[in-house]
Each structure stands twice: as structure tokens, then as C-alpha cells.
Design a protein that fits this description.
single chain, two-stranded antiparallel sheet, 3 domains, 365 residues, eight-stranded mixed β-sheet, alpha+beta, DHBP synthase, 14 helices, 16 strands
């Protein structure tokens, strides 16, 4: 998705020759996955011109075909009476396609994509349907006494302060406590001052997106924040976008269509001119961003952190990416977080209310 924005869908027509789109559910999409002709064709294209522009054009072409198939499938549902369209599975994690689909639905209909868009999402839907059939009314699901939305995305374990202290003590003297950061406002001041911080906050996420439970936060106002994160900290391709986390009630100031935003960072929205000016680090080359909103009933820590950052900078938004080293899963435990922090060029580590730094950082201050 990130690479596609750098290219043009020059090969979309060639790829579509391998697909057949039908006008009913039995023939919605026909594609022979055992046919080696398509991958052979893609390899020939790359072998003739293995440069960045060709790879970007191929990515843009595949993205265009995926969006066409998704919109075709959704159109088959258009005459069915419904108010919510729910999609799951691997393709439902394509946030660019999701953003486009959300804007094509008829008025009064909305898109729902679970943050863990796979078989687990189908399981929750099946349980809801079972309760509806048996009881005649929809079930009201909760998670630890809270509404499933947005907490469904973060059902992981809580580790507690003592576990966090123990993990940090195990890394001493490479990791030392910094008592000057005592809450969200202190942390917001550090981020506003240019620090890039690893966060372990409350329960962990389920699904591929880091939503503030196991995240790396940076200042979105500096385009160099994105470059430092991609090139020096996560050691990944510089074309990869980084996501904005924004107070839900301020979202419309920075993004064009709120239908293209949600609490799970699973849709892409067009950035406003204000966003491009004030938060360039979260705006992709095509002028879009994969937005995560934090609603009033969302994580209290994240709400306080965003509010404090807004009071300091005038921007109610943070740059957010997953807390992991390249090639590794997102951290889960305090020990994982400490290990990743020591191996990455992060400036600080926040463990459920406790803040830690490298000794060299204290010497520089």
C-alpha cells in the first residue's frame, strides 16, 4: 500500500486478464491460484527493469485491481437492505481500499472492519448472530466492563507496575529511571522536544496495528521524525508511511472525510492543507494518512497524552508506529519492551507510568 502511492497502475490491465468478475455471488470472482502465468509475468517485468519505479508501478497496479474487486463485491450488496457492511479476512487489512469503499456506500450505511480482520472477526459476528436468533434482540458485548468499541482492539494482558520495575531492573545499568517524567504531560513535553519514545501502556493490541498499547510515538510536526524512524530506528524502507493518532473530536480539522477514519487505524483518509502544514510527518506522498482516532471514551492515558501535546504544540496528534524491531512481532511483555528499547535508537521508554532512559541520554542533558 505504501509503495503503491509512488507508482502508476500501468500493469493493471495485464493483471485483470487473469481475473473474471461475475454478476452474482457464485461467480463474483474467478481466479485460478494454481496458474503460474501471473507470477511468471510479474517476474518477467521485474527482470527487465528491476528499479524502484517498476516495483512501485506493480504495487500500484495490484492495489488498483484489489480495489476494483472489492468495490465490485460491495456493489453486489447494494440492493440488499442493510445499514452496516462488515468485511473481514486478509484483504480487509488494506486500509487504502477500505477508505475508498467507505466513501462509496449509500447514505445511512457505514463500513465496519474489525481490527483483527480475520477468522476471529467472523467468530464474534457468529456469536452476535446466535444471540440475536435465540433471544430476538442483539447482544450487547463488553470487554472488561467496557464497550467493545474501541476496546475490542486491545484485549491483551495487564502486567502491572512491579513487573515493569522488575524488567527495568534486569537491564540496569543500561537502563535507568527518569523520575522527572511523572505523567502524560511530562511525556508530551519530551515528545514535543523531539524525543522518540517507546510505549507499553495497559493491555496489548490484537491484530497488526499498534494502537497505543505497544507503540512508538514521535512529534508529527517534523518531517524528519518519519525519516529517523524509518531509516535509523526501524531500519525499513523510507517510502513506508507512519500513522497519525488524533483526538476524535478534532479529526475533521486534519482529515477530509471522517468516514475514512476509525479507532483501529484501518482506513486511509485524505489530509487537509492544515494537516500537511502542521503535521507533515504523518502525510504520505499521495496526501493521505492511515488515521487512528481516540474517542472520548477511549484509553484515558492516550486522551491525556494527546490533550497535553495539543496544549503544548497546538496539534492534537501524535505520530504512531508499532513498537518492534524489523523482522520481529510487536512487543508484548515489559521484558520484550526493554529488550527492543535497548536495541533501538529510542530516546525514552514508558512502562505503564514509569519512564526510563539510556545513561548516555542523561549525560547529554
Amino acid at each position: 500500500m505504501g509503495l503503491a502511492a509512488h507508482g502508476q497502475p500501468r500493469y493493471a490491465g495485464l493483471i485483470e486478464e487473469f481475473l473474471t468478475l461475475g454478476n452474482d455471488w457464485t461467480s463474483c470472482l474467478a481466479f485460478d491460484v494454481s496458474d503460474s502465468a501471473l507470477p511468471d509475468m510479474l517476474r518477467r517485468i521485474l527482470s527487465r527493469s528491476p528499479d524502484f519505479s517498476t516495483k512501485a508501478d506493480l504495487a500500484a497496479s495490484i492495489q488498483a485491481v484489489l480495489e476494483k474487486v472489492l468495490l465490485h463485491a460491495a456493489n453486489l450488496m447494494s440492493e440488499i437492505d442493510h445499514d452496516v457492511l462488515c468485511i473481514v479476512g486478509g484483504c480487509a487489512l488494506n486500509s487504502v481500499a477500505n477508505g475508498r469503499l467507505a466513501t462509496t456506500l449509500r447514505p445511512g450505511r457505514r463500513l465496519l472492519v474489525p481490527p483483527h480482520a480475520g477468522d476471529a472477526g467472523i467468530g464474534i459476528g457468529a456469536l452476535w448472530l446466535d444471540r440475536l436468533i435465540k433471544n430476538g434482540v442483539p447482544a450487547h458485548f463488553t470487554l472488561r466492563g467496557r464497550s467493545l468499541d474501541p476496546w475490542i482492539a486491545r484485549p491483551g494482558r495487564l502486567y502491572g507496575e512491579e513487573r515493569c520495575r522488575s524488567a527495568a531492573r534486569g537491564a540496569y545499568p543500561q537502563l535507568i529511571p527518569d523520575a522527572s517524567v511523572a505523567g502524560p504531560r511530562d511525556l508530551a513535553e519530551r515528545i514535543a522536544g523531539g524525543q522518540v519514545v517507546g510505549i507499553l501502556n495497559g493491555p496489548s493490541e490484537m491484530g497488526p496495528r499498534a494502537l497505543g498499547g505497544r507503540s512508538i510515538f514521535a512529534d508529527p510536526r517534523q518531517a524528519l521524525s518519519r525519516e529517523r524512524l524509518n531509516r535509523e530506528i526501524k531500519h525499513r524502507e523510507p517510502f513506508r508511511p507512519l500513522a497519525p493518532m488524533v483526538l476524535e473530536e478534532r479529526c475533521e480539522e486534519f482529515f477530509v472525510d471522517v468516514r475514512c477514519t476509525d479507532s483501529f487505524m484501518i482506513r486511509v483518509a485524505e489530509a487537509t492543507a492544515k494537516c500537511a502544514k502542521l503535521a507533515p510527518a504523518v502525510v504520505h506522498i499521495d496526501g493521505t494518512a492511515r488515521v487512528q482516532t481516540v474517542p472520548p471514551d477511549g484509553d484515558p492515558f492516550l486522551r491525556a497524552l494527546l490533550t497535553a501535546f495539543d496544549e503544548i504544540t497546538g496539534v492534537p496528534m501524535l505520530l504512531n508506529t508499532s513498537f518492534n524491531r524489523r523482522g520481529e512481532p510487536i512487543v508484548e511483555t515489559p521484558e520484550d519492551a526493554v529488550d527492543a528499547f535497548l536495541a533501538m535508537k529510542l530516546d525514552g521508554l514508558y512502562l505503564d507510568g514509569l519512564y526510563f532512559i539510556h545513561p548516555k541520554a542523561m549525560a547529554m542533558s
